[in-house]
């Protein structure tokens, strides 16, 4: 039987590339350039808008036992989108801009996930949230203004939320066919690659 932990164990190197990147390393060092950070901020807002639509569609496919966490996630997204708008305003950033190709590619992929079965969607949701939970946590405490961002996704409550998503994905996988297992693995791999590309996009963003 496939589990989330098995995916992490099998694709360690790929997952490291998704969660450990010079962008985050330079946030930790305080040496990230504003143009890089701002590129990430704007593009991530555009991503989170599409991610919100994904979560809404996952709710539609989920068993009622999984509603609590998904509805909680949607409620958190309401705050998150407003928070992104506040952060952008503080930095005088225009959020009504076009998506860079990597961001567009990731958003297109989110749409593809919505056409797959619930176990695959549950694995995708977990992996996307885990990528940020680990990515912002692994470097350790960051200096301001990055501490606020690191704490937002590295905090204990968010880690706990991601654990619940993992349990739900595992329980959905229990009855999954081999074909669905393969789809889930493929989605996990693509998310890891897209997460790495997203950091890379922001890192080279201003150039
Ligand atoms: C490229 C990219 N990948 C993953 C996330 C993670 N994420 C998406 S929405 C959200 C809010 C809480 O559910 C979080 C943490 C992201 N923001 N950007």
UniProtKB/TrEMBL annotation:
Protein keywords: Hydrolase, Thiamine biosynthesis
Entry protein name: Aminopyrimidine aminohydrolase
PANTHER family: BIFUNCTIONAL TENA-E PROTEIN, BIFUNCTIONAL TH2 PROTEIN
CDD domains: TenA_E_At3g16990-like
Residues in Thiaminase-2/PQQC domain copies: 9-203
InterPro entries linked: Haem_Oase-like_multi-hlx, TenA_E, Thiaminase-2/PQQC, Thiamine_Salvage_TenA
Pathway: Cofactor biosynthesis; thiamine diphosphate biosynthesis
EC number: 3.5.99.2
One Pfam family linked to the record: TENA_THI-4
Catalysis performed (reactions): 4-amino-5-aminomethyl-2-methylpyrimidine + H2O = 4-amino-5-hydroxymethyl-2-methylpyrimidine + NH4(+); thiamine + H2O = 5-(2-hydroxyethyl)-4-methylthiazole + 4-amino-5-hydroxymethyl-2-methylpyrimidine + H(+)
Cited function: Catalyzes an amino-pyrimidine hydrolysis reaction at the C5' of the pyrimidine moiety of thiamine compounds, a reaction that is part of a thiamine salvage pathway. Thus, catalyzes the conversion of 4-amino-5-aminomethyl-2-methylpyrimidine to 4-amino-5-hydroxymethyl-2-methylpyrimidine (HMP).
Domain of life: Bacteria
Statement: the UniProt record of this protein carries the keyword tRNA-binding: no
Gene3D superfamilies recorded: Heme oxygenase-like
Family under the similarity heading: Belongs to the TenA family.
Keyword Hydrolase listed: yes
